[in-house]
Specification:
The protein is mainly α. The protein has a domain of 139 residues. Helices cover 77% and strands 0% of the residues. It contains eight helices and no strands.
């Protein structure tokens, strides 16, 4: 065997032995999730407590806030039927609109804005629910006066305006429809109900 061949054979034998001596670093362990501080937990619990108490207070005085809303709109508009119909539409659709805004913006805006939208929806809901003309809950004593019938008319038009997104948005998300046209269609349908509420009084 020639000298170059012997050298090549010798180096081939020593490579595995050298490779066995090489040590690799162990894989890095994943970072541990941050532990919430006591101050943050306390602040969150305090916020939930204040929010719960505020909601129950609003629920307890819901007829007072409803009457104040209706009387305030009547005082500003003089009981104009179109204006009262729009006011009735707004108070009901506010709950639906804020709820859908919270769902659609949850991962797109800062959490502080999401919490603000959610708090507004919860704060408006007692007044809206007590004003909605259920068959077993008369609201004549809350809306009596000029434009009362128009107010109820606007509230009834707001009901389909709140249901339209419930029907369209999940279907559009399931079909991966473009968000821009979907949002435009929903907004147009909602706007049509508002115009109809004011024009059909």
């Amino acid at each position: 065997m020639s000298r170059p061949a012997r050298r090549k054979r010798r180096s081939a034998k020593t490579v595995p032995s050298r490779a066995r001596g090489i040590t690799t670093a162990p894989p890095a362990s994943p970072p541990e999730p941050p532990v919430p501080s006591i101050g943050r937990v306390t602040l969150g619990a305090l916020a939930w407590l204040v929010g719960s108490v505020t909601y129950f207070v609003l629920f307890a005085v819901r007829e007072t806030t409803a009457r104040a809303y209706v009387d305030g709109v009547r005082g500003l508009t003089g009981g104009n039927p179109q204006a009262m119909a729009i006011a009735g539409w707004v108070i009901v659709f506010a709950v639906f609109g804020l709820g859908w805004a919270l769902v659609l913006l949850w991962k797109r805006v800062h959490r502080g804005w999401c919490y603000t939208i959610g708090a507004a929806a919860v704060a408006v809901s007692p007044t809206a629910l007590v004003l909605f003309p259920f068959d077993d809950f008369p609201i004549v004593h809350l809306i009596s006066g000029a434009g009362g019938a128009a107010f109820v008319h606007g509230m009834r038009w707001a009901a389909p305006a709140g249901v339209i997104p419930v029907l369209v948005v999940p279907f559009a998300l399931a079909k991966n429809a473009p968000r821009g046209p979907t949002t435009a269609v929903v907004a147009l349908c909602v706007l049509i109900t508002l115009i109809a509420a004011a024009l059909t009084v």
